[in-house]
Specification:
Structural class: alpha+beta
Number of helices: 6
Largest sheet: 4 strands, antiparallel
Radius of gyration: 29 Å
Oligomer: single chain
Helix content: 25-40%
Number of strands: 8
Distance between the termini: 92 Å
């Protein structure tokens, strides 16, 4: 009796054909695992994007807070909400005044500070998109790229005074509960060069009116100690009023 020597029937021997079948199966299994992992990760990636944009928005406000502090170190006062000409006409916002402190010195030097922000001589510069002044979550279809939702708190006893600098010694309330800049609803955005900010009425805006908030559930706010906190949309108006004042002496609970 002859013993078959057919290579395909010989135990432990891999022929090119069997190797090809094994290789094909291996890659199909590997590809299947890859697709499963990819689809399992997609929801996480989707959730991560809003979180990343929200974190960048928070970092923007931190940079603004640091810029205000550096401005103070140089001038021994915080900037006014806006500058004015000899006739009292508004010229430029505090956002323009702190440009050198957010790595925008060339832009600052290009602006004619003796002419209003909306003067034709400054038209090129007011259309610029300054990344630090723009939350990455702002939809361009609803908010022009040169707009900002970061508005200073301007009130008689608020952090920013309209046309005069603010001394640190005037701030006697706890800095951790003193509002400096607040992120306003999209419909209240302004050109970043515009001398427009948030008065008490805007900070106290009833969020039951369903404005278009940039972030779900509330808005970021820069406080006097340089920290950025998230104000819930249902934060009581009385609490917001306490945050506005710099010398009200109110007791403020944490939020």
């Amino acid at each position: 009796m002859s013993i078959s020597t057919d290579p395909e029937l010989t135990s432990g021997t891999n022929t090119p054909q069997s190797t090809r079948r094994f290789g094909c199966t291996f890659w199909l299994v590997l590809a299947g695992i890859g697709f499963v992992l990819l689809f399992s990760l997609l929801p996480t990636v989707g959730r991560g994007r809003p979180a990343a944009r929200r974190m960048q928005c928070k970092n923007n406000l931190k940079q603004i807070g640091l810029a205000l502090q550096n401005y103070y170190d140089d001038f021994q006062a915080f900037p006014p909400a806006y500058t004015v000409d000899a006739n009292g006409k508004p010229l430029h916002s505090w956002r323009t005044l702190i440009l050198p402190y957010i790595d925008q010195l060339p832009l600052y030097n290009s602006i004619d500070l003796t002419k209003p922000w909306d003067d034709p001589v400054n038209s090129e510069f007011r259309e610029r998109n300054v990344p630090v002044y723009r939350c990455p979550s702002l939809p361009s279809r609803d908010c022009p790229t040169n707009h900002t939702t970061y508005l200073g708190s301007v009130a008689p006893n608020g952090f920013f005074r309209s046309t005069e600098p603010r001394l640190r010694s005037e701030i006697t309330d706890d800095l951790a509960y003193t509002l400096v800049v607040v992120e306003v609803p999209i419909e209240h955005s302004v050109p970043w060069m515009s001398p427009q900010d948030a008065d008490e009425a805007l900070v106290l805006l009833s969020y039951g009116l369903n404005p278009k908030l940039v972030h779900t559930g509330g808005q970021h706010s820069l406080l006097g100690d340089g920290m950025v906190r998230f104000l819930p949309e249902n934060l009581p108006m009385e609490f917001r009023r306490k945050l506005i004042t710099i010398n009200g002496g109110e007791h403020v609970e944490d939020f």
